[in-house]
Amino acid sequence: MYTLKNFQTKKAAREALAQTLAAGKPGLRFYQPGPFGGNEPTEGRITLEGPHFPEPHRWYATAQVRDGFIVSIK
Length: 74
What we know:
This protein is of the alpha+beta class. Helix content is 18%, strand content 32%. A hairpin with an 8-residue loop joins strand 3 and strand 4. The longest helix is centred in the N-terminal third of the chain and has 13 residues. The two termini are 14 Å apart.
């Protein structure tokens, strides 16, 4: 799955999440591209990858999702 913003590094994604949560917002949005999209989980763990296709993926992460938003990235 991808975050809505095309982060070039996992560190950038984690920093953006920290800033978002510090601002009182619920977290980062995410989606599943292609024909598998539309059934993204609203709770639990997901796997993120980046940067977005067609660039080669250079980072992968596990994220915790709550109420349809990413709330932590490891």
